[in-house]
Design a protein that fits this description.
With 301 residues, the chain is of the alpha/beta class. It has ten helices and 18 strands. The strands form four sheets. A seven-stranded mixed β-sheet has the order 7-6-5-4-3-1-18. Strands 8-9-10-13-14-15-17 form a seven-stranded mixed β-sheet. The chain has a two-stranded parallel sheet with strand order 2-16. 43% of the residues are buried.
Length: 301
């Protein structure tokens, strides 16, 4: 699983930072969080492709988070995409899609739109789920967590052989957590040859928000927290007024949630050099990095 930052600027793009968009590549699928203007261009640069299985999760309906959708959907149509695309977002996302589609034309592939009305699990698939909690920003806004389902523990074939279990279907049953009965009547339990289940990976995306306890709980124990850091500490009052966070506040969320890694994004254009933001955050949470456009971060098993 790999995180690819497509746009890391706050509110307006700069020569080096595009509008908000973060992609997660997982098992051939692209999971996109927000889709600011220019997202499709950076998807080309990142070689993500436009025909893969795709789900898009929009945090809120401010332009720097959604204005890439018209171009992205048109490009997918031009490239003869046929796979369905699933789009999740706050109330109003359906009207937004209808408005520009009435002028530009509807997508030439199935587009499934899911308006989020309440927090909780908004998508569950065979390998992972996505949870949402309300963010504290102007209008309806959501933070998201991508949480992989637990993976089976490691199977030990040498233990199975020592217990007399023949290789084949009985091994598979043990690997899946079932017990087996041998021809001599002995029962072999899965726990005797398989380690306990292993926790899946977890990535949390804050969207635009003031620090909240709900986000701390959502991010609890995450491998990665991607948190906005629009302002430095000197502009904490401005951050509170505008519904944003400072670098130190993002770090406080990471520390309280005990995450492994904090990645700062949504950096205001007033900071062409984000070194000051990084320094402030690392005083609170040392394992912090500032995201850059097209930066890739691998999340190992």
């Amino acid at each position: 699983m790999k995180i690819v930052f497509l746009g890391t600027s706050g509110s307006m793009p700069t020569p080096s930072r595009g509008a908000s968009a973060v992609a997660v590549k997982r098992e051939g699928e692209v999971i996109l969080f927000d889709c600011g203007e220019g997202t499709q261009q950076r998807m080309v640069a990142a070689r993500l492709g436009f025909r893969r299985p795709t789900r898009i999760f929009v945090s809120h309906l401010h332009g720097d988070h959604v204005l890439g959708l018209p171009g992205l959907l048109q490009t997918m149509t031009l490239l003869r995409r046929e796979r369905p695309l699933h789009l999740y977002g706050p109330r109003g996302i359906l009207d937004f899609i209808k408005a520009f589609s009435a002028i530009l034309g509807a997508p030439g592939f199935p587009l499934e739109i899911h308006e989020i009305l309440d927090g909780g699990v908004v998508y569950t698939g065979p390998d992972y789920k996505v949870e949402a909690v309300r963010a504290d920003h102007e209008g309806e806004c959501w933070s998201y967590a991508l949480v992989e389902h637990p993976r089976p523990g490691r199977f030990h074939p040498e233990r199975a052989r020592a217990l007399g279990v023949p290789e084949g279907p009985l091994w598979k049953r043990l690997q899946r957590g079932g017990d087996v009965v041998l021809d001599d009547g002995r029962r072999v339990r899965s726990a005797e040859v398989v380690d306990p289940p292993r926790r899946g990976r977890k990535i949390v995306y804050s969207g635009d928000t003031r620090p909240t306890e709900a986000l701390v709980e959502l991010a609890r124990g995450a491998d990665v927290l991607i948190h906005e850091a629009t302002f430095d500490d000197a502009l904490a009052e401005r951050a509170a007024e505008d519904g944003h966070s400072t670098a130190s506040q993002a770090a406080e969320v990471a520390a309280a949630a005990r995450v492994e890694l904090l990645l700062l994004t949504h950096v205001s254009s007033r900071y062409p050099d984000p070194a000051g933001l990084l320094e402030q955050a690392r005083k609170v949470f040392p394992n912090t990095r500032v995201a850059e456009d097209l930066m890739e971060v691998e999340i190992p098993l």
